[in-house]
Amino acid sequence: MLEQRIQQHFIDSADLKYQAAQALSHPIASAVQAILACVTGGGKVLACGGGLSAVQAQQFAAFCVDGLERERPELAALPLGPSAGKADAAALARQVRALGQAGDVLLAITATGDEDALLDAAQAAHERDMTVIALSGRTGGALAGLLRETDVQICVPHDRAARVREVHALVLHCLCDGVDAQLLGEQEIPL
User: Fold this and answer.
1) What are the tens digits of pLDDT across the range 159-180?
2) Which of 60, 83, 99, 167 lies 20 to 30 Å from 10 when distance is taken between CA atoms?
């Protein structure tokens, strides 16, 4: 019984990834182009996440700086998080206002799209003339409603947070690989 349950997790995850591949490839490519324009123009990516997605934001920033699978020059990226001594919803927005500049990108990662801190961060990014890439789940939540025409929404069409985060991890790998391929050319990655 337990083994069947475990196997079902793998099947459900693979099925969602297969379904999402075609639907998400265009917005992921658009996000790659936005990140590429940002970093090659001297800008930086500010990455933040709601709840458990904050860890994925930290990981993405590390991929930008350290690389994913290929050696390349460091890309300017910073993870945003709770301020020391201030654990309020406005902390991310304050960091965006302090660090963000026109031409920068805010990558906001959320399973639901409804966290107040991310909504405030997206609004702060718009105040700074930054592009927002919203990596969300379900229907995109309230964050989807804040996006401008120049922003990018990558919305995993699923209600279960665990499945959404699994696809988010793959999307983050695709973003980094896409930027690397654009900067360094296509290359076979050794297995």
Assistant:
1) 999 999 999 999 999 999 999 9
2) 60
Neighbours of 75 (CB within 10 A): 23
Q: How far is Cα 48 from Cα 89, in angstroms, rounded to an integer?
A: 12
State how beta strands 152-156 and 77-79 pair. unpaired
**By the 8 A CB rule, do 166 and 16 touch?**
yes
* C-alpha closest to that of 106 among 84, 128, 88: 128
Residue 84 has pLDDT above 80, yes or no: no
Q: Provide the mean pLDDT of the chain.
A: 93
Instruction: For residue 120, give every residue at least 6 positions away whose Cβ sits within 8 Å of its Cβ, in sequence order, or none.
Output: 89, 90, 92, 93
Model pLDDT for residues 31-70, shown as the tens digit of each residue:
999 999 999 999 999 999 988 999 999 999 999 999 988 8
The Cα angle at residue 151 between residues 70 and 58, in degrees rounded to 5: 45
94 closest CA partner among 43, 103, 190, 85: 85
